[in-house]
Amino acid sequence: MSFFRFAMLLLGCCGVIAQAQDSRALQILGRAQAAAGGTEALAAVKDMIVTRDIRAVGGGMSGRQVVKFLLHAAMRQESSLPFGQVVVSLVDGAGSIDSPQGKSALVGPQLTQAQGELFRVRERLLLADSLPDWTVSYLESSVDSGREADVLEVSDPKSSQRVRLWIDKKTGEFYRSSFAAVAIVGAQQLDEFYSDFRAVNGIQTPFRIDVSTAGRALTEIHIEKVLHNTGLTKSELR
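The structure corresponding to this sequence follows.
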């Protein structure tokens, strides 16, 4: 364990250096920031409450969710499902899950998944270059769904989280992400495609997210409401 922690610390240090050197990645991310509304508007978001309708396409359960984020430290996900309500809470790296079966601590894949949800908040990813421990890397150019795109990878060595971002070459729009979802479908990669963009406090926000794996549709997420800066506190999210 001590070696693992040392290795993560080393990776974190190297990540800062790589981030500073990868000027191409930072330039592309800068275009995505501008397309989304600008760094000032993105940085002004301190907390978010997102209400969404989740519709299963390829099997699984449909339901409704209210997700509360306090950037960059906490989240609370309240899901209304056919069998009852499930509440997942994550504050400062530790969390709990409360379901009809009872309440317990988040551990293993469930904890990793919750940490990933907080890591992948769109407004946070777009400001990845402002977080000193995160690394932004250029991977490749790609033709994706008829769009020419630059593919970046954002990673956090401390939590071992990573995600790929597809940025439209012409518009700068961040329209797709890809990541491992351990707690949902084993070790498979999930793709999220963003559409129906609307301005929320000057930030271009997707109100539809289509989730798939290996080209197979899984879920449609329809955003009903997005609120910024409501004054959320950590104690409210536990």
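DSSP finds seven helices and 13 strands in the chain.
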